[in-house]
Design a protein that fits this description.
Number of strands of chain A: 0
Largest sheet of chain A: none
Strand content of chain A: under 5%
Shape of chain B: globular
Largest sheet of chain B: none
Strand content of chain B: under 5%
Largest interface: A-B, 27 and 33 residues
Number of strands of chain B: 0
Order of helices and strands of chain B: HHHHHHHHHHH
Radius of gyration of chain A: 25 Å
Helix content of chain A: over 70%
Membrane topology (chain A): Multi-pass membrane protein
Helix content of chain B: 55-70%
Family (chain A): Belongs to the complex I subunit 6 family.
Oligomer: heterodimer
GO molecular function, one term (chain A): NADH dehydrogenase (quinone) (non-electrogenic) activity
Shape of chain A: globular
Order of helices and strands of chain A: HHHHHHHHHH
Keywords (chain A): Cell membrane, Membrane, NAD, Oxidoreductase, Quinone, Transmembrane, Transmembrane helix
Main location (chain A): membrane
């Protein structure tokens, strides 16, 4: 288990370095995916297979797909890679490097002070144990997260619908009708248009 | 033979099992390329490949030779790394999922207690095969196919997980063996009928099978994400699709139809028989149904299947709480 832990940890660190230094956006994203899978392996090695599986399903399997999806549509070519390498000059590295160096120092001090060996060979946590914890002592946090997600969903749905699209929809549905009856129909069509646009935003 | 200890024997047997299941899955996928065309011929009242060997069974050899000896061409405008990586991901992620499927009481590769989640993880990674394949080809049809495929797969993966949570709640475990064991008396297709329906739909969508094959619709996209592929790399996408069919059929059998349970016949026969029925059903769907429009597919997923799975999960949870012996 310890070997698995250290190997996947090394892979995670190297892959993350690849993300930071990579010039090609899609290649950098591939490194990020590898890094997330390596972190999932770290979870497996620590005896938390449920967290590891969720890491792959949620981060590598869903969120990163959207990242890749968007970056692919941007059609970034050689120009973007050159811009990236122009940004990655030694001067730019200085500030973040100092800050992360301090963090590394803190981490090392904590690790040296603590008993690391005992932590790695932990007991395997089952999904049931995780669920009991989440819906027991941490219930309020889960509910708050759920509310936050719901708010985000509503906001995304609202931002995703475009007024112009709705107008075009309503006008197209009622070509050249000026009667009160036709207007009533336009209103009902309009609500239908709202439905389709919210459906499009949820894609 | 002092080194032939029981441990070594157990390791050797496990390795042997894993190899047999791996090769069996690949061979089943390859064989399906021929069986599907014969079945399509039967259901659409035409012949299908019937010239090579008795009943055309050697057609698969001819196809294999053709795929292997075709020029394996990488377009100069393609991104080499991703172009080579994509078919490998397509094949490997699906084959790895066979790991968690228990075939008989004694056969099966890994007995993970997060078995079902492992399948979800592999299905999630499988999306990258299509995405990378379509993007790295440097072809707009391929990119369109990849975009359709990833949007479709993401939408349907949302409720492929939710549709199985009813099963997980009733069995009380993510472990596939325990799920099969919980179906000793009643198969989960009876209490979880809506879960079964939505999982079937989502399974077809995730494997990009007809009628959810908009990502590779030949009339609109000239074959979608693998339009630039040739030779064995294309073959891996192709066989990968059939391996996906076998995988989803085996999962349906394990999760909803009691796995190896059945009277009279030995467990392995029951498992293979049930899986074969579902593989046949997949082919029948392709033979019988027209292809719906892409936005119809998406709105069907979000507006029909997702609410259905949520209601199913809610009702299942409520019933379990009402009838649980501890009283909650």
């Amino acid at each position: 288990m310890e070997i698995a832990f250290y190997l996947s940890a090394v892979v995670a660190v190297l892959a993350t370095l690849g993300v930071v230094t990579g010039r090609h956006p899609v290649h950098a994203l591939l490194y990020l995916i590898v890094s997330l899978i390596a972190v999932a392996m770290v979870f497996f090695a620590l005896g938390a297979p449920f967290a590891g599986a969720l890491e792959i399903i949620v981060y590598a399997g869903a969120i990163m797909v959207l990242f890749v999806f968007v970056v692919m549509m941007l059609n970034l070519g050689e120009a973007a890679a050159q811009q990236e390498s122009a940004w990655l000059r030694p001067r730019t590295w200085l500030g973040p490097a100092v800050l992360s160096g301090i963090l590394l120092l803190v981490l090392l001090v904590t690790l040296i002070g603590a008993d690391v060996g005992g932590r790695i060979q932990g007991d395997t946590l089952t999904a049931k144990a995780v669920g009991t914890l989440l819906f027991g002592p941490y219930l309020i946090v889960v509910e708050l997260a759920a509310m936050l997600l719901l708010a985000a969903l509503v906001a995304a749905s609202h931002l995703g619908r475009s007024e112009a699209h709705d107008e075009a929809h309503a006008v197209r549905q009622v070509p050249g009708k000026r009667t009160a009856d036709g207007r009533g129909r336009a209103a009902s069509e309009r609500s239908l248009g709202d439905d389709t646009s919210s459906e499009e935003s949820s894609r | 033979m002092s080194w032939w200890t029981p441990q070594v024997e157990a390791i050797a047997f496990a390795l042997f099992q894993a190899l047999v299941i791996l090769i069996g899955a690949v061979l089943a996928g390859a064989l399906l390329t021929m069986v599907e065309r014969r079945l399509l011929g039967l259901w659409q009242d035409r012949h299908g490949p019937n010239r090579v060997g008795p009943f055309g069974v050697l057609q698969i050899l001819a196809d294999m030779l053709k795929i292997l000896f075709k020029e394996d061409w990488i377009p100069p405008f393609a991104d080499r790394t991703f172009f080579v990586l994509a078919p490998a991901i397509a094949m490997a992620s699906l084959l790895l999922s066979f790991m968690v499927i228990p075939i008989t009481p004694s056969w099966g590769v890994a007995d993970l207690h997060i078995g079902l989640l492992f399948f979800f993880a592999m299905a999630g990674i499988n999306v990258y095969a299509v995405l990378f394949g379509g993007w790295s080809s440097g072809n707009k049809y391929a990119l369109l196919g990849a975009m359709r495929a990833s949007a479709q797969t993401l939408s349907y993966e949302v409720f492929i997980g939710l549709s199985l949570m009813g099963v997980v709640a009733m069995a009380g475990s993510f472990n596939m063996r325990e799920i099969v064991a919980a179906q000793e008396t009643v198969w989960f297709i009876v209490p979880q009928f809506f879960g079964f329906c939505t999982f079937l739909v989502a399974g077809i969508a995730v494997t990009h099978r007809h009628p959810f094959d908009q990502p590779e619709a030949e009339q609109e996209l000239a074959d979608g994400y693998h339009v630039e592929y040739s030779g064995m790399k294309w073959g891996m996408f192709f066989i990968g699709e059939y391996v996906g069919i076998v995988l989803v059929s085996a999962l349906i059998v394990t999760l909803f139809l009691g796995g190896w349970h059945g009277p009279w016949l030995p467990p392995i026969v029951w498992f293979l028989l049930k899986t074969a029925v579902f593989v046949g059903f997949f082919v029948l769907l392709r033979a019988a149904l027209p292809r719906p429009r892409y936005d119809a597919v998406m709105s069907f997923g979000w507006k029909v299947c997702l609410p259905l799975t949520l209601i199913n999960l809610l009702v299942t949870g409520a019933l379990i709480l009402v009838f649980s012996p501890a009283g909650g």
